[in-house]
Specification:
This protein has a single domain, classed as Ribosomal Protein S5, domain 2. The chain is built from 9 helices and 12 strands. A hairpin with an 8-residue loop joins β6 and β7.
Length: 286
C-alpha cells in the first residue's frame, strides 16, 4: 500500500471584507468577518515522481460530480516546499462559489504533504504558505486566516498572523448557489476594491444577528450583488429571514426559521454547520 497522508480544512463564507495591500504576499490580505463552515475540503497526498493535483467534487453520498486535473495554487505550494506528490482534493460544495474552498484545499493539501514527508511545519508555517499561494494567484485574501479555527470570525488586521476574534453560535446555516463569481476579477479590479472599501463596516459583530446585519448592509453598498442573488435577498427580507450574499460567489446564505423554505423557491438549499475547529491532519496510512 502506498503511504498516504489525509488532512481536512473547513470552508469559509465571507460576509464582508476589505483588501489591505502590502508590499509582499505576507503583508497583503483583508479585514472582515465570516463564518467558518464544517463543509470543507479533504486532501490526500502520496509521493510521486512529479507534482500532480486532482480536484474532485462529490455529493454527500460519495458519487462523483466532477473531477479536474491541476490546481495552480496547490502546485505552487508544493513547488515552494520542493516536494513531488500526487494530491487529491475532495469537497461537496460548489467550487468557486464563495465557500472558501481554495483556501481549504491549500490548508488541507499542505498539512497532508507536511505529514507525508515529515517536513516539521507548524500551523503558523502551513497557514503562511497557504495564504501566500492564495494572494499570488488572486484566489483569496482572508479565508486562510479564518480557517485556522472555527466559529464566526472577525479579522481586524490582515494575514493569518493577524488579530482574529471568534465566537461560536449554535444556529444552523443555509445556502444557495447559482455558480461561481471569479475572485480574481473582483479583487484584481482597483475600481471594485475602492467600492468595497467604501462599503466596509467598522467594528466586529457581537452576535450572529449583528453579523448578518453588517453583511447585508455591506452587500447592498458594495455593488457586488448580481440580479439572481438580489432576488433571493429580497425574498428573505420579505419573509423576515436574516440573509446575505456569499463573498465572493453567486449565492446567498441565511439563518433562522424560514431560511430553508425561502431558498427552496430559487435553488436546492444547502445545509451548513458552523465549524468548531480549523484545519487538521486526519491520518497517515502506511
Amino acid at each position: 500500500m502506498v503511504r498516504t497522508a489525509v488532512a481536512f480544512s473547513p470552508g469559509h463564507i465571507s460576509g464582508y471584507f476589505m483588501k489591505v495591500a502590502g508590499e509582499s504576499p505576507a503583508t497583503t490580505g483583508s479585514l472582515g468577518a465570516g463564518i467558518v463552515i464544517e463543509e470543507g475540503v479533504v486532501a490526500s497526498a502520496s509521493a510521486a515522481e512529479t507534482i500532480e493535483v486532482v480536484v474532485g467534487r462529490r455529493d454527500t453520498e460519495g458519487a462523483v460530480l466532477s473531477e479536474a486535473s491541476g490546481s495552480p495554487p496547490v502546485e505552487y505550494a508544493l513547488e515552494r516546499l520542493d516536494v513531488s506528490a500526487r494530491v487529491e482534493t475532495r469537497c461537496s460544495l460548489p467550487i468557486g462559489a464563495g465557500f472558501g474552498l481554495s483556501a481549504a484545499a491549500l490548508l488541507a493539501s499542505i498539512t497532508a504533504v507536511d505529514a507525508l514527508f515529515d517536513l516539521g511545519m507548524d500551523r503558523r508555517g502551513i497557514a503562511a504558505l497557504a495564504h501566500e499561494a492564495e494572494v499570488v494567484h488572486s484566489t483569496g485574501l482572508g479565508d486562510v486566516a479564518a480557517c485556522q479555527g472555527g466559529g464566526i470570525v472577525c479579522r481586524t488586521t490582515p494575514g493569518p498572523g493577524g488579530e482574529i476574534r471568534r465566537f461560536y453560535p449554535e444556529e444552523a446555516i443555509w445556502a444557495v448557489s447559482f455558480g461561481p463569481l471569479p475572485t480574481p476579477e473582483v479583487i484584481g479590479s482597483q475600481a471594485q476594491i475602492e467600492r468595497i472599501a467604501a462599503a466596509f463596516p467598522e467594528g466586529c459583530p457581537s452576535d450572529l444577528p449583528e453579523f448578518f446585519r453588517l453583511s447585508r448592509a455591506f452587500a447592498g453598498r458594495s455593488g457586488l450583488v448580481p440580479p439572481e442573488v438580489g432576488a433571493v435577498l429580497a425574498a428573505c427580507d420579505a419573509a423576515g429571514v436574516r440573509a446575505s450574499m456569499t463573498m465572493l460567489g453567486r449565492g446567498a446564505f441565511a439563518t433562522g426559521d424560514g431560511a430553508e423554505e425561502v431558498f427552496s423557491r430559487f435553488a436546492p438549499p444547502i445545509p451548513l454547520h458552523i465549524a468548531r475547529e480549523g484545519f487538521r491532519l486526519l491520518e497517515v496510512r502506511a
